[in-house]
Amino acid sequence: MATFDVAVIGSGPGGYRAAVLAALRGLKVVIIEKNTWGGTCLNRGCVPKKAWYHTARIIADSAEFPGRGINGALRADFAQAWHHQRQVVDTVRASYTDYLGRLGVKAVQGAARFRGPGMLQVAGDTIAAGSIIIATGSQPWLPERLRPVPGRIITTDDLFDAPPPAGRRVAVLGSGAVGTEMAFIFSQLGLAVVWLSGREPLSDSAWSDPARTALRLALARAGVTPRVQARITAAQADADGVTLTLPGGVRERVDWVLAGTGRRPHTADLELSRAGVALDGRGHVVVDACNQAARGIYAIGDVANPGMSANHALADATVAVANIIAPGSRRRDDRNVPEAVYSALELARVGLSEDQAEALDLEPAAGFAGFETSPAALTEGERGGFLRIVADMDNGRALGAEIVGRGAGELISLLGLEFGAPRALSRLAGAAYNHPTRAEEILNAVETLAARWGMARAVFPATCPGKTDGAAGE
Question: Is 435 part of the annotated catalytic residue set?
Fold first, then answer.
Protein backbone atom coordinates (compact mmCIF):
# COMPACT_ATOMS: atom_id res chain seq x y z
CA MET A 1 0.00 0.00 0.00
CA ALA A 2 1.35 3.42 -1.03
CA THR A 3 0.76 6.38 1.30
CA PHE A 4 0.55 10.06 0.32
CA ASP A 5 -0.37 13.37 1.89
CA VAL A 6 -2.75 14.19 -0.97
CA ALA A 7 -4.37 12.01 -3.63
CA VAL A 8 -6.02 13.77 -6.59
CA ILE A 9 -8.55 11.88 -8.74
CA GLY A 10 -8.63 13.44 -12.21
CA SER A 11 -6.02 15.38 -14.16
CA GLY A 12 -8.07 18.18 -15.71
CA PRO A 13 -7.32 21.84 -14.93
CA GLY A 14 -8.58 21.57 -11.35
CA GLY A 15 -6.85 18.30 -10.57
CA TYR A 16 -3.63 19.45 -12.22
CA ARG A 17 -3.54 22.74 -10.32
CA ALA A 18 -4.37 21.02 -7.03
CA ALA A 19 -1.52 18.54 -7.51
CA VAL A 20 0.93 21.31 -8.45
CA LEU A 21 -0.05 23.59 -5.57
CA ALA A 22 0.15 20.76 -3.02
CA ALA A 23 3.55 19.65 -4.33
CA LEU A 24 4.90 23.22 -4.30
CA ARG A 25 3.96 23.39 -0.64
CA GLY A 26 6.02 20.31 0.14
CA LEU A 27 3.28 17.68 0.28
CA LYS A 28 3.65 14.17 -1.10
CA VAL A 29 1.13 13.95 -3.94
CA VAL A 30 -0.31 11.31 -6.25
CA ILE A 31 -2.58 12.14 -9.20
CA ILE A 32 -4.77 9.44 -10.77
CA GLU A 33 -6.20 9.58 -14.29
CA LYS A 34 -8.26 6.86 -15.96
CA ASN A 35 -8.39 8.40 -19.44
CA THR A 36 -6.26 11.03 -21.21
CA TRP A 37 -3.92 13.17 -19.14
CA GLY A 38 -5.14 16.75 -19.04
CA GLY A 39 -8.86 16.00 -18.91
CA THR A 40 -11.57 17.61 -20.99
CA CYS A 41 -10.20 21.16 -21.04
CA LEU A 42 -6.85 20.23 -22.54
CA ASN A 43 -7.97 17.46 -24.86
CA ARG A 44 -11.58 18.25 -25.83
CA GLY A 45 -12.40 21.74 -24.66
CA CYS A 46 -10.68 25.01 -23.79
CA VAL A 47 -7.30 24.45 -25.43
CA PRO A 48 -8.23 22.95 -28.83
CA LYS A 49 -11.22 25.27 -29.08
CA LYS A 50 -8.97 28.28 -28.47
CA ALA A 51 -6.66 27.11 -31.27
CA TRP A 52 -9.64 26.93 -33.64
CA TYR A 53 -10.95 30.27 -32.41
CA HIS A 54 -7.70 32.02 -33.29
CA THR A 55 -7.88 30.55 -36.79
CA ALA A 56 -11.55 31.54 -37.12
CA ARG A 57 -10.71 35.10 -36.03
CA ILE A 58 -8.05 35.40 -38.74
CA ILE A 59 -10.54 34.23 -41.37
CA ALA A 60 -13.22 36.62 -40.11
CA ASP A 61 -10.79 39.55 -40.03
CA SER A 62 -9.64 38.82 -43.58
CA ALA A 63 -12.82 40.40 -44.94
CA GLU A 64 -11.26 43.78 -44.09
CA PHE A 65 -7.74 42.93 -45.27
CA PRO A 66 -8.04 44.80 -48.62
CA GLY A 67 -8.74 48.05 -46.76
CA ARG A 68 -5.51 47.52 -44.85
CA GLY A 69 -3.54 47.00 -48.01
CA ILE A 70 -3.40 43.21 -47.69
CA ASN A 71 -4.45 41.48 -50.89
CA GLY A 72 -5.21 37.84 -51.60
CA ALA A 73 -7.83 35.36 -50.47
CA LEU A 74 -7.72 33.01 -47.48
CA ARG A 75 -9.29 29.56 -47.65
CA ALA A 76 -10.09 27.52 -44.57
CA ASP A 77 -9.07 23.86 -44.38
CA PHE A 78 -11.10 22.24 -41.61
CA ALA A 79 -9.18 18.96 -41.71
CA GLN A 80 -5.84 20.72 -41.32
CA ALA A 81 -7.27 22.91 -38.56
CA TRP A 82 -8.15 19.72 -36.68
CA HIS A 83 -4.57 18.43 -36.99
CA HIS A 84 -3.19 21.80 -35.86
CA GLN A 85 -5.18 21.80 -32.65
CA ARG A 86 -4.02 18.25 -31.96
CA GLN A 87 -0.40 19.38 -32.28
CA VAL A 88 -1.06 22.19 -29.81
CA VAL A 89 -2.71 19.78 -27.38
CA ASP A 90 0.12 17.26 -27.62
CA THR A 91 2.69 19.99 -26.94
CA VAL A 92 0.82 21.27 -23.89
CA ARG A 93 0.27 17.75 -22.54
CA ALA A 94 3.96 16.91 -22.82
CA SER A 95 4.87 20.04 -20.87
CA TYR A 96 2.12 19.32 -18.34
CA THR A 97 3.24 15.78 -17.53
CA ASP A 98 6.90 16.79 -17.49
CA TYR A 99 6.23 19.49 -14.90
CA LEU A 100 4.33 17.07 -12.65
CA GLY A 101 7.29 14.71 -12.81
CA ARG A 102 9.79 17.45 -11.98
CA LEU A 103 7.70 18.38 -8.94
CA GLY A 104 7.81 14.79 -7.73
CA VAL A 105 4.08 14.14 -8.23
CA LYS A 106 3.37 10.43 -8.65
CA ALA A 107 1.21 9.80 -11.74
CA VAL A 108 -1.00 6.70 -11.76
CA GLN A 109 -3.02 5.55 -14.77
CA GLY A 110 -6.27 3.82 -13.90
CA ALA A 111 -9.78 4.18 -12.48
CA ALA A 112 -9.93 5.09 -8.79
CA ARG A 113 -12.68 4.07 -6.41
CA PHE A 114 -13.12 4.60 -2.70
CA ARG A 115 -12.60 1.73 -0.31
CA GLY A 116 -13.39 4.00 2.61
CA PRO A 117 -12.34 7.38 4.07
CA GLY A 118 -8.76 8.05 3.06
CA MET A 119 -8.47 4.84 1.03
CA LEU A 120 -8.57 4.38 -2.76
CA GLN A 121 -8.35 1.32 -4.97
CA VAL A 122 -6.70 1.67 -8.41
CA ALA A 123 -6.67 -1.64 -10.27
CA GLY A 124 -4.99 -4.00 -7.81
CA ASP A 125 -3.24 -1.30 -5.81
CA THR A 126 -4.36 0.46 -2.65
CA ILE A 127 -3.57 4.12 -2.06
CA ALA A 128 -3.89 5.79 1.32
CA ALA A 129 -3.93 9.58 1.63
CA GLY A 130 -4.41 12.09 4.40
CA SER A 131 -6.55 14.17 2.02
CA ILE A 132 -8.29 13.22 -1.21
CA ILE A 133 -9.43 15.66 -3.91
CA ILE A 134 -12.16 14.53 -6.32
CA ALA A 135 -11.63 16.30 -9.66
CA THR A 136 -13.31 13.89 -12.07
CA GLY A 137 -14.99 16.57 -14.18
CA SER A 138 -18.05 15.99 -16.32
CA GLN A 139 -19.27 14.24 -19.43
CA PRO A 140 -21.53 15.33 -22.33
CA TRP A 141 -25.25 14.99 -21.79
CA LEU A 142 -27.77 14.32 -24.56
CA PRO A 143 -31.56 14.49 -24.22
CA GLU A 144 -33.44 11.22 -24.69
CA ARG A 145 -34.57 12.23 -28.18
CA LEU A 146 -30.96 12.49 -29.29
CA ARG A 147 -28.78 9.40 -29.41
CA PRO A 148 -25.07 9.51 -30.27
CA VAL A 149 -24.17 7.99 -33.64
CA PRO A 150 -20.45 7.79 -34.54
CA GLY A 151 -19.62 10.19 -37.37
CA ARG A 152 -23.18 11.56 -37.49
CA ILE A 153 -24.43 12.75 -34.10
CA ILE A 154 -21.47 13.69 -31.94
CA THR A 155 -20.47 15.70 -28.88
CA THR A 156 -17.46 17.97 -28.42
CA ASP A 157 -15.67 15.01 -26.83
CA ASP A 158 -16.11 13.08 -30.08
CA LEU A 159 -15.18 16.11 -32.18
CA PHE A 160 -11.71 16.43 -30.70
CA ASP A 161 -11.05 12.73 -30.14
CA ALA A 162 -11.13 11.86 -33.85
CA PRO A 163 -10.89 13.75 -37.16
CA PRO A 164 -14.13 15.52 -38.07
CA PRO A 165 -16.88 13.73 -39.97
CA ALA A 166 -17.22 14.09 -43.72
CA GLY A 167 -19.60 16.69 -45.10
CA ARG A 168 -19.85 20.48 -44.90
CA ARG A 169 -23.43 20.95 -43.71
CA VAL A 170 -23.46 20.67 -39.93
CA ALA A 171 -26.17 21.33 -37.36
CA VAL A 172 -24.98 22.91 -34.12
CA LEU A 173 -27.40 22.34 -31.24
CA GLY A 174 -27.57 24.49 -28.13
CA SER A 175 -27.96 28.08 -26.97
CA GLY A 176 -25.21 28.06 -24.36
CA ALA A 177 -21.53 28.87 -24.63
CA VAL A 178 -20.66 25.74 -26.66
CA GLY A 179 -23.31 26.39 -29.30
CA THR A 180 -22.51 30.10 -29.45
CA GLU A 181 -18.81 29.48 -29.88
CA MET A 182 -18.86 26.51 -32.24
CA ALA A 183 -21.48 28.01 -34.58
CA PHE A 184 -19.11 30.92 -35.23
CA ILE A 185 -15.93 28.84 -35.37
CA PHE A 186 -17.40 26.29 -37.80
CA SER A 187 -18.77 29.03 -40.05
CA GLN A 188 -15.28 30.53 -40.43
CA LEU A 189 -13.61 27.14 -40.94
CA GLY A 190 -15.59 26.52 -44.11
CA LEU A 191 -18.65 24.66 -42.86
CA ALA A 192 -22.27 25.49 -43.66
CA VAL A 193 -23.81 25.91 -40.20
CA VAL A 194 -27.43 25.29 -39.23
CA TRP A 195 -27.65 26.57 -35.67
CA LEU A 196 -30.68 25.23 -33.81
CA SER A 197 -31.61 26.28 -30.30
CA GLY A 198 -34.59 26.35 -28.02
CA ARG A 199 -33.99 29.96 -26.95
CA GLU A 200 -31.94 33.03 -27.75
CA PRO A 201 -28.21 32.40 -27.38
CA LEU A 202 -26.90 32.99 -23.84
CA SER A 203 -30.36 34.07 -22.64
CA ASP A 204 -30.04 31.73 -19.66
CA SER A 205 -26.94 33.51 -18.37
CA ALA A 206 -25.72 36.60 -16.53
CA TRP A 207 -24.65 38.43 -19.70
CA SER A 208 -26.34 41.80 -20.05
CA ASP A 209 -28.80 42.67 -22.81
CA PRO A 210 -26.26 45.06 -24.43
CA ALA A 211 -23.64 42.29 -24.49
CA ARG A 212 -25.99 39.78 -26.08
CA THR A 213 -27.23 42.36 -28.57
CA ALA A 214 -23.67 43.24 -29.61
CA LEU A 215 -22.86 39.55 -30.03
CA ARG A 216 -26.00 38.93 -32.09
CA LEU A 217 -25.09 41.76 -34.47
CA ALA A 218 -21.51 40.50 -34.80
CA LEU A 219 -22.75 36.98 -35.53
CA ALA A 220 -25.12 38.34 -38.19
CA ARG A 221 -22.23 40.21 -39.84
CA ALA A 222 -20.35 36.90 -39.89
CA GLY A 223 -23.34 35.23 -41.56
CA VAL A 224 -24.36 33.22 -38.48
CA THR A 225 -27.96 33.42 -37.27
CA PRO A 226 -29.51 31.03 -34.74
CA ARG A 227 -32.86 29.46 -35.43
CA VAL A 228 -34.60 29.80 -32.07
CA GLN A 229 -37.55 27.79 -30.76
CA ALA A 230 -36.11 25.00 -32.87
CA ARG A 231 -35.38 22.35 -30.26
CA ILE A 232 -35.35 19.06 -32.15
CA THR A 233 -38.09 16.52 -31.54
CA ALA A 234 -36.44 13.60 -33.36
CA ALA A 235 -33.22 12.68 -35.15
CA GLN A 236 -32.67 9.92 -37.67
CA ALA A 237 -29.13 9.11 -38.82
CA ASP A 238 -28.30 7.04 -41.89
CA ALA A 239 -25.27 6.33 -44.06
CA ASP A 240 -25.51 9.71 -45.83
CA GLY A 241 -26.41 12.12 -43.03
CA VAL A 242 -28.96 13.05 -40.41
CA THR A 243 -32.60 14.13 -40.69
CA LEU A 244 -33.71 16.37 -37.83
CA THR A 245 -37.36 16.92 -37.05
CA LEU A 246 -38.21 20.34 -35.60
CA PRO A 247 -41.40 21.72 -34.00
CA GLY A 248 -44.30 21.73 -36.40
CA GLY A 249 -42.93 18.74 -38.28
CA VAL A 250 -40.32 20.80 -40.14
CA ARG A 251 -37.37 18.68 -41.27
CA GLU A 252 -33.76 19.67 -41.70
CA ARG A 253 -31.21 17.53 -43.52
CA VAL A 254 -27.53 17.83 -42.54
CA ASP A 255 -24.35 15.81 -42.96
CA TRP A 256 -23.70 15.63 -39.23
CA VAL A 257 -24.70 17.10 -35.89
CA LEU A 258 -22.67 18.62 -33.06
CA ALA A 259 -24.67 18.50 -29.83
CA GLY A 260 -23.81 21.24 -27.35
CA THR A 261 -26.68 20.25 -25.08
CA GLY A 262 -24.88 20.38 -21.74
CA ARG A 263 -22.76 18.28 -19.42
CA ARG A 264 -23.30 16.28 -16.24
CA PRO A 265 -20.90 15.59 -13.34
CA HIS A 266 -18.88 12.40 -13.69
CA THR A 267 -19.14 10.29 -10.52
CA ALA A 268 -19.80 6.81 -11.93
CA ASP A 269 -17.89 3.93 -10.29
CA LEU A 270 -16.21 6.12 -7.65
CA GLU A 271 -18.25 4.41 -4.90
CA LEU A 272 -18.55 7.70 -3.05
CA SER A 273 -20.92 6.32 -0.43
CA ARG A 274 -18.07 4.32 1.09
CA ALA A 275 -16.42 7.61 2.00
CA GLY A 276 -19.56 9.37 3.21
CA VAL A 277 -19.75 11.65 0.15
CA ALA A 278 -23.22 12.76 -0.98
CA LEU A 279 -24.63 13.99 -4.30
CA ASP A 280 -27.26 16.67 -4.87
CA GLY A 281 -30.27 16.47 -7.16
CA ARG A 282 -28.23 17.35 -10.25
CA GLY A 283 -25.49 14.85 -9.53
CA HIS A 284 -22.89 17.26 -8.15
CA VAL A 285 -20.84 16.27 -5.12
CA VAL A 286 -22.15 18.23 -2.14
CA VAL A 287 -19.41 20.44 -0.67
CA ASP A 288 -19.22 23.20 1.90
CA ALA A 289 -17.77 26.68 1.44
CA CYS A 290 -14.25 25.22 1.73
CA ASN A 291 -14.92 22.65 -1.03
CA GLN A 292 -14.98 19.86 1.55
CA ALA A 293 -17.31 16.94 0.85
CA ALA A 294 -16.47 14.85 3.93
CA ARG A 295 -13.73 14.78 6.51
CA GLY A 296 -10.44 14.79 4.59
CA ILE A 297 -12.22 14.69 1.20
CA TYR A 298 -12.62 17.66 -1.15
CA ALA A 299 -14.35 18.00 -4.53
CA ILE A 300 -13.56 20.64 -7.15
CA GLY A 301 -14.52 21.71 -10.66
CA ASP A 302 -17.36 20.31 -12.76
CA VAL A 303 -18.01 17.39 -10.41
CA ALA A 304 -18.93 19.79 -7.59
CA ASN A 305 -19.33 23.30 -9.02
CA PRO A 306 -22.48 24.24 -11.01
CA GLY A 307 -20.38 26.83 -12.87
CA MET A 308 -18.81 23.88 -14.72
CA SER A 309 -15.90 25.74 -16.29
CA ALA A 310 -12.13 25.37 -16.21
CA ASN A 311 -11.98 28.73 -14.43
CA HIS A 312 -14.14 27.41 -11.60
CA ALA A 313 -12.04 24.25 -11.39
CA LEU A 314 -8.82 26.24 -11.10
CA ALA A 315 -10.28 28.51 -8.42
CA ASP A 316 -11.69 25.52 -6.50
CA ALA A 317 -8.29 23.84 -6.55
CA THR A 318 -6.72 26.83 -4.82
CA VAL A 319 -9.45 26.77 -2.15
CA ALA A 320 -9.13 23.03 -1.53
CA VAL A 321 -5.35 23.01 -1.18
CA ALA A 322 -5.42 26.08 1.07
CA ASN A 323 -7.84 24.29 3.40
CA ILE A 324 -5.84 21.05 3.38
CA ILE A 325 -2.83 23.02 4.62
CA ALA A 326 -4.76 25.33 6.97
CA PRO A 327 -8.35 24.14 7.57
CA GLY A 328 -10.93 26.91 7.31
CA SER A 329 -8.45 29.40 5.85
CA ARG A 330 -10.14 30.02 2.51
CA ARG A 331 -13.74 30.01 1.27
CA ARG A 332 -15.06 29.57 -2.23
CA ASP A 333 -16.52 32.65 -3.92
CA ASP A 334 -17.78 31.87 -7.41
CA ARG A 335 -18.68 35.53 -7.99
CA ASN A 336 -14.99 36.36 -8.33
CA VAL A 337 -14.37 33.66 -10.96
CA PRO A 338 -14.30 35.12 -14.50
CA GLU A 339 -16.49 33.79 -17.30
CA ALA A 340 -15.72 34.10 -21.01
CA VAL A 341 -17.27 33.25 -24.37
CA TYR A 342 -15.22 33.19 -27.60
CA SER A 343 -17.48 33.84 -30.55
CA ALA A 344 -17.99 36.53 -33.22
CA LEU A 345 -17.31 38.90 -30.33
CA GLU A 346 -15.29 37.93 -27.29
CA LEU A 347 -17.24 38.30 -24.03
CA ALA A 348 -15.92 38.23 -20.48
CA ARG A 349 -17.42 39.05 -17.11
CA VAL A 350 -16.69 38.79 -13.39
CA GLY A 351 -18.65 39.50 -10.22
CA LEU A 352 -22.30 40.54 -10.14
CA SER A 353 -24.43 41.83 -12.96
CA GLU A 354 -26.84 44.69 -12.27
CA ASP A 355 -29.78 42.26 -12.09
CA GLN A 356 -27.93 40.03 -9.64
CA ALA A 357 -26.99 43.04 -7.51
CA GLU A 358 -30.59 44.25 -7.39
CA ALA A 359 -31.72 40.76 -6.35
CA LEU A 360 -29.42 41.16 -3.33
CA ASP A 361 -31.08 44.52 -2.48
CA LEU A 362 -28.00 46.48 -3.53
CA GLU A 363 -28.04 49.80 -5.39
CA PRO A 364 -25.98 49.17 -8.53
CA ALA A 365 -24.64 51.82 -10.88
CA ALA A 366 -22.74 51.17 -14.11
CA GLY A 367 -19.79 52.99 -15.64
CA PHE A 368 -19.58 52.51 -19.41
CA ALA A 369 -16.78 52.96 -21.94
CA GLY A 370 -17.35 52.11 -25.61
CA PHE A 371 -14.62 50.75 -27.85
CA GLU A 372 -15.97 52.52 -30.95
CA THR A 373 -13.69 55.48 -30.20
CA SER A 374 -10.83 53.48 -28.71
CA PRO A 375 -7.67 53.93 -30.82
CA ALA A 376 -6.66 50.36 -29.99
CA ALA A 377 -9.99 48.90 -31.12
CA LEU A 378 -10.15 51.08 -34.23
CA THR A 379 -6.68 50.03 -35.35
CA GLU A 380 -7.83 46.41 -35.19
CA GLY A 381 -11.05 47.11 -37.08
CA GLU A 382 -13.43 45.87 -34.41
CA ARG A 383 -16.93 47.23 -33.94
CA GLY A 384 -19.50 46.94 -31.18
CA GLY A 385 -17.32 46.39 -28.13
CA PHE A 386 -17.49 48.05 -24.72
CA LEU A 387 -16.51 47.79 -21.08
CA ARG A 388 -18.90 48.17 -18.12
CA ILE A 389 -18.07 48.30 -14.41
CA VAL A 390 -20.85 47.86 -11.84
CA ALA A 391 -20.51 49.43 -8.38
CA ASP A 392 -22.66 49.85 -5.28
CA MET A 393 -23.85 53.46 -5.01
CA ASP A 394 -24.26 53.15 -1.24
CA ASN A 395 -20.63 52.42 -0.44
CA GLY A 396 -18.67 52.67 -3.71
CA ARG A 397 -17.72 49.00 -3.66
CA ALA A 398 -16.96 47.40 -7.03
CA LEU A 399 -19.50 44.65 -7.72
CA GLY A 400 -18.81 43.35 -11.20
CA ALA A 401 -17.53 44.02 -14.69
CA GLU A 402 -18.36 43.00 -18.25
CA ILE A 403 -16.17 43.37 -21.34
CA VAL A 404 -17.23 42.87 -24.95
CA GLY A 405 -14.52 42.86 -27.59
CA ARG A 406 -11.15 41.50 -28.54
CA GLY A 407 -8.94 40.61 -25.60
CA ALA A 408 -11.88 40.56 -23.17
CA GLY A 409 -10.74 37.23 -21.73
CA GLU A 410 -7.34 38.74 -20.89
CA LEU A 411 -8.62 42.09 -19.59
CA ILE A 412 -11.14 40.53 -17.23
CA SER A 413 -8.31 39.01 -15.21
CA LEU A 414 -6.95 42.49 -14.53
CA LEU A 415 -10.32 43.56 -13.16
CA GLY A 416 -10.75 40.30 -11.29
CA LEU A 417 -7.64 41.06 -9.24
CA GLU A 418 -9.39 44.09 -7.74
CA PHE A 419 -12.88 42.80 -7.12
CA GLY A 420 -13.48 42.10 -3.48
CA ALA A 421 -10.94 44.76 -2.44
CA PRO A 422 -12.56 47.58 -0.39
CA ARG A 423 -10.96 50.32 -2.51
CA ALA A 424 -11.03 48.61 -5.89
CA LEU A 425 -12.43 51.62 -7.77
CA SER A 426 -9.82 54.02 -6.42
CA ARG A 427 -7.06 51.51 -7.19
CA LEU A 428 -8.31 51.16 -10.77
CA ALA A 429 -8.61 54.94 -11.12
CA GLY A 430 -5.13 55.46 -9.72
CA ALA A 431 -3.40 52.94 -11.98
CA ALA A 432 -1.29 53.99 -14.98
CA TYR A 433 -2.32 52.43 -18.29
CA ASN A 434 -0.45 51.79 -21.51
CA HIS A 435 -1.68 53.74 -24.55
CA PRO A 436 -3.21 52.93 -26.94
CA THR A 437 -4.85 49.87 -25.39
CA ARG A 438 -8.30 48.69 -24.51
CA ALA A 439 -7.16 48.51 -20.88
CA GLU A 440 -7.21 52.29 -20.56
CA GLU A 441 -10.99 52.16 -21.05
CA ILE A 442 -11.08 50.79 -17.50
CA LEU A 443 -10.13 54.27 -16.30
CA ASN A 444 -12.79 55.86 -18.50
CA ALA A 445 -15.47 53.54 -17.12
CA VAL A 446 -14.45 54.26 -13.52
CA GLU A 447 -14.43 58.00 -14.15
CA THR A 448 -17.91 57.72 -15.66
CA LEU A 449 -19.06 56.09 -12.43
CA ALA A 450 -17.60 58.95 -10.43
CA ALA A 451 -19.08 61.72 -12.57
CA ARG A 452 -22.49 60.30 -13.43
CA TRP A 453 -23.42 58.69 -10.15
CA GLY A 454 -21.87 61.10 -7.65
CA MET A 455 -19.24 58.62 -6.50
CA ALA A 456 -16.20 60.87 -6.78
CA ARG A 457 -15.29 60.58 -3.12
CA ALA A 458 -15.24 56.79 -3.30
CA VAL A 459 -13.27 56.75 -6.53
CA PHE A 460 -10.85 59.62 -5.88
CA PRO A 461 -10.09 59.75 -2.13
CA ALA A 462 -7.69 62.48 -1.00
CA THR A 463 -4.07 61.37 -1.09
CA CYS A 464 -2.03 64.58 -1.29
CA PRO A 465 -0.77 66.28 1.90
CA GLY A 466 -2.96 69.14 2.95
CA LYS A 467 -6.02 67.84 1.11
CA THR A 468 -9.18 66.84 2.96
CA ASP A 469 -11.76 64.22 2.08
CA GLY A 470 -14.22 66.99 1.36
CA ALA A 471 -11.96 68.33 -1.41
CA ALA A 472 -11.29 64.98 -3.01
CA GLY A 473 -12.48 64.74 -6.59
CA GLU A 474 -13.94 68.24 -6.54
Answer: yes
